[in-house]
Amino acid sequence: MTDYHCHLLPGIDDGPSSVDESIEMARLLSKAGYDTVYCTPHLIKGRYEADNNSVKKSINDLQEALNRNGIPLKLLHGREYYLDSNFMDYLDDLMPLENTSNVLIEIPPHTYPGMVEDSLSAIMRQNLTPMLAHPERCELFVEKKITDVPRKKATLKSLFHRINSSPLPLPRQEEESDNKLLLWMIGNKCAFQSNLPSFKGIYGEKIQATAQYLDSLGVYTHSGTDAHSPGGVKKLFGFDELQ
Ligand SMILES: [Fe+2]
User: Is 109 inside any structural domain?
Assistant: First the structure.
């Protein structure tokens, strides 16, 4: 089993602060059934700015430590890019998930759909595929527009099936515009990574309902823990309760 989104590296972002903590987290992920983990530290200008070479070196060091400790987890590299106004500065050195064309991105709150489309288009011009992290948590086009208004659920469902060549009826024009960005991404074959904690209700009922709804549409292509600490992995898999 592969974890496509995880903050496992020590001292790079808001993940573990020490190697020992990373090793404990890796041990728990292995116990949960994972054999492969993409290490996807944040890249946010002004907050988490480690360069790609530092990430690769950190992965090599941690992999050696896991091997020494007999933890059967294969680490692969990636980043979690933040689509703010600084994202374009990183375009020349994008690091997709290792051995794939997928570039993991997160959409900040309070951003504009046009800016997101510009950034995603720039990724696709490099023949890379934007992979949206936890769309169920993206308030821009999900929380208010879909889960709060039952009528919009039917609308999105209709549009999604239309993109996939289903003969379902078209919605009215103004309804289509409400979910334009999500539909634009689906139409451009972007990838969508769900967070396991969303399904478990760890971020609350609203996000859980959104995740279940998007899953029912078949939007998701990948899954991840988005874990940041050993405690987060324990909570996700209920390990504390089992001990
Ligand atoms: Fe993350």
Answer: yes
**Maximum alpha-carbon separation in the chain:** 60
Dihedrals phi, psi of 28, to nearest 5 degrees: -70, -40
Closest of 75, 117, 122, 76 to residue 96, by C-alpha: 76
Question: In this structure, is residue 50 part of a structural domain?
Answer: yes
Answer yes or no: are the C-beta atoms of 178 and 145 closer than 8 Å: yes
**Please, which residues have CB within 8 angstroms of residue 12's CB and are 6 or more apart in sequence?**
41, 48, 50, 54, 55, 58
Distance (angstroms) between ligand 1 centre and the Cα of 131 equals 12
Whole-prediction pTM: 0.86
Measured in Å, residue 80 CA sits from the centre of ligand 1 at 6
**Alpha carbon distance 55, 124 (integer Å):** 23
Residue 59 lies in a domain: yes
Any idea what DSSP says for residue 86? Answer: T
Question: How many domains are contained in the chain?
Answer: 1
**C-alpha 233 – ligand 1 centre gap (Å):** 13
**Whole-number mean pLDDT of the chain?**
87
Q: H/E element holding 237? A: helix 230-237
Q: What residue numbers bound the domain in which 44 lies?
A: 2-138+192-242
The CATH number of whichever domain residue 43 belongs to comes to 3.20.20.140
C-alpha 49 chain-centroid distance: 19
Q: What is the pLDDT of residues 75-120, one digit of tens each?
A: 999 999 999 999 999 999 999 999 999 999 999 987 888 889 999 9
In a domain, 153, yes or no: no
